[in-house]
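Anyone able to model this chain together with guanine?
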Amino acid sequence: MTILDGKQTSAQIKEELRVEVEERKRKGLKVPHLAAILVGEDGASMTYVNSKVKSCKAIGYDSTLIRLDSAISEEKLLETIDELNDNTDIDGFIVQLPLPKHIDEQKVIERVHPEKDVDGFHPENFGRMALGLPTFIPATPNGIMELLRRYEVPTEGKSCIVIGRSHIVGLPMSILMGLNDVPGNCTVTLTHSRTKNLKEICQNADILIVALGKPEFVTGEMVKEGAVVIDVGITRVPDETKKSGFRLLGDVHYDSVAPRTSFITPVPGGVGPMTIASLLQNTLKAVKRKE
Ligand code: GUN
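re: yes, here you go
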């Protein structure tokens, strides 16, 4: 069994980006600038956004964090997005999700200019991804593809089961794994809350990608011997022995599943760190597209 080490791989990608930014600076080219909008005070979202900003600093990018009150109107948020769309120094930006209930998330996603949509959530970019055209690929799926690529995990002709159809992870993942590419060329099944016989379907998976947000949902008896298991879950569960007061649990019951696999991502240190590396890669892509 090989552990797909997202922490180490993302550190490697960030180092590659740092070197490239240094070279850009030497050549007088533009330094990538990523902005993030964070609405409200959700603990997990604050952690993610802070680590995105910190990673920018570490590799020499410019970054801007815009914090807005959770009571902000949809109109005001859309105005802030317009300002970032018009700001020529900012190459790409994200609006951290989820948003408060009174704001229409889809409206927000569609307001971001596709050329600055480093999350790859805009329908134009999502459509381009589905067609295999050059675009921004959403950060978490792109991070998973990068892990599979760098560890040379065989995917061609394999049966790939995805659990969860979120627009951020499950749905794009199912599309990418079916494209005629490397990694890719899988026979894909996208499963969700209405799927019947999920256990039997999982047992047939050569590659199992779990992104439903239920801690330790996938157990050993659901996994075929030799399968590749990608765990996208990161649920905070209370833990008084930790300084933070919580620990992170994946969607996969690691102890019963790992011994059966050929490759597996741990939680933490698997998919999570790859997401940030992908966002940074997309931001550099946004700058280069303009050159
Ligand atoms: N919330 C959870 N994952 C993501 C992500 O990749 N991008 C944004 N904007 N919000 C998220």
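The first helix runs from residue 6 to 26.
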